């Protein structure tokens, strides 16, 4: 998630119809430092900077004495808490309204909805690559400029697959903690193909070939493994992982010298489908070898 300031976060809460700012801390005017947003239910130990207070948390607060509530607020202030978000209609404890260090906000949204709202507004990340959908698996194809990502997109579309965005897709987290990708601008249907020029994808493949958004399942990196390239030589096992928006995704690295990259990407997508069914070719191979060695 992109780093933001306290004033930017508070302005989002003020402008959103789903939130009501009851008290705005003076820190939003004096602090210009940026931070990563961490949202969770009230927890004095976990270093969240936005604490959501629901039924259970409110019952816990009300069970404390006034002095204990003040100590709790002091502890959370030292842990860099920025806002308390009460998402119940019950009265807010007076100790939270009388303090002046942490902003107090009310919302009718659930924790997941609050996370989704904040992530949607501040959690977008733009990736340089091509976002395609192969066998219903969202795949982000990355690589150097001019390596052939857009040409590979055409090959996959010719094979009957779909696409979401080329060059600069945007990704965000939804309320299910899934990474959702979509086109970052309105001219996404125009794609530049090396040695050909500009192609209007609507004219070539029809509007129905492009999805507005889709879940991201994996990343495939195209590597230039020639001697004059900065890319490292490929290891025996090309499957690793990469973290995006806090989610770890499987990542394959494929050489651009491969004869049929579209076919290899289809095989990677097949592996994702099999994995979703609980089937692993490598595990089956291990089982077979272990059986033969007995």
Q: How would you characterize this protein structure?
A:
The structure is a single chain. With 294 residues, the protein is an alpha/beta fold. The protein folds into two domains: 4-122, Udp-n-acetylmuramoylalanyl-d-glutamate--2,6- Diaminopimelate Ligase, Chain: A, domain 1, CATH 3.40.1390; 125-287, P-loop containing nucleotide triphosphate hydrolases (Rossmann fold). Helix content is 33%, strand content 29%. It is built from ten helices and 18 strands. The chain has helices at residues 6-15, 27-30, 55-62, 66-78, 94-98, 111-122, 149-158, 201-205, 261-276, 281-293; strands at 4-5, 19-23, 34-35, 39-41, 50-53, 83-86, 103-107, 125-126, 130-134, 137-142, 162-165, 169-173, 179-183, 190-193, 197-200, 213-223, 239-244, 247-255. Strands 8, 9, 10, 11, 12, 13, 16, 17 and 18 form a nine-stranded mixed β-sheet that branches. A five-stranded mixed β-sheet has the order 2-7-6-5-4. A hairpin with a 3-residue loop joins β14 and β15 (197-200). 27% of the residues are buried. The model has no long low-confidence stretch (mean pLDDT 84).
Map the helices and strands.
Blueprint: E1 4-5, H1 6-15, E2 19-23, H2 27-30, E3 34-35, E4 39-41, E5 50-53, H3 55-62, H4 66-78, E6 83-86, H5 94-98, E7 103-107, H6 111-122, E8 125-126, E9 130-134, E10 137-142, H7 149-158, E11 162-165, E12 169-173, E13 179-183, E14 190-193, E15 197-200, H8 201-205, E16 213-223, E17 239-244, E18 247-255, H9 261-276, H10 281-293
Parallel strand pairs: 4-5, 5-6, 6-7, 10-16, 16-18
Antiparallel strand pairs: 1-3, 2-7, 8-12, 9-10, 9-11, 12-13, 13-16, 14-15, 17-18
